[in-house]
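Continuing the series of single-chain predictions for the mutant panel. This is the parent chain; the variants come on the following pages.
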Amino acid sequence: MLEIKTRVSGALIVKTVLLKCVSLTAPYVKQCHEADPKLMECFISALHHLRPYLATGITEIELPSVEPFRMDELSLSLTGGPSGFKVTLADIDIYGASNFTVTKIRSDIDTYQFQITLFIPHISARAKYVSSGILILVQASGGGDYWGEYEGVRAKIYIRAKPILKNGRTYLSLQESKMDFSVKSIRMGVENVHNGNSVLQAALNLFINTNGQELLKEMKPDLKKKLLATLSNFVENLFAKIPYDAWIVG
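Parent structure:
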């Protein structure tokens, strides 16, 4: 029993030491100096520096890859009534999120508030779908594969944190986060519809491509909620593993 406890304690010590050394050796950390008159430009450069590491994941701080970024499911009702058309997307894989450009950043260092505006030129999505109800006078219950191509994605992210002391270092703790996004153009469709129903597939694709922005509007509340939860978990993990004074030097 003593040997097992010793091994566990040793592993925890090694992990703690590695995390303490992150700021000194981590290639994904680009430091900015608080007194720098071009601090906002440095912040943008630091976020851009992080992009390839987000694409592959950072094992040492247990940060998974965002390529693809996976969501469990999204549900939406597209028409009303007892036979209204409803769709559930599941096992959603989103590609292209790491290919972002920070177009603007505003920050209040004293209150640890950050507002970041991003542009992503192209995002692709793949998912399984299940539908029920009637659409364009066609019984549309069934399932298959969903695909989506989103061009010109713009997002605005707000983060507010507070400093905490841990092991003699300053870390940040996430207090509040918000986000919103827009998409310039959308192409979506379904394929491999169950039972090879070509009539249903044609009806679905006609409806989807005619009403792309309206469908996104219906999806947006649930999508924002899930994206914000994922973003918050990501930021909390980043804040917990990397000291604030590793990123910003006073």
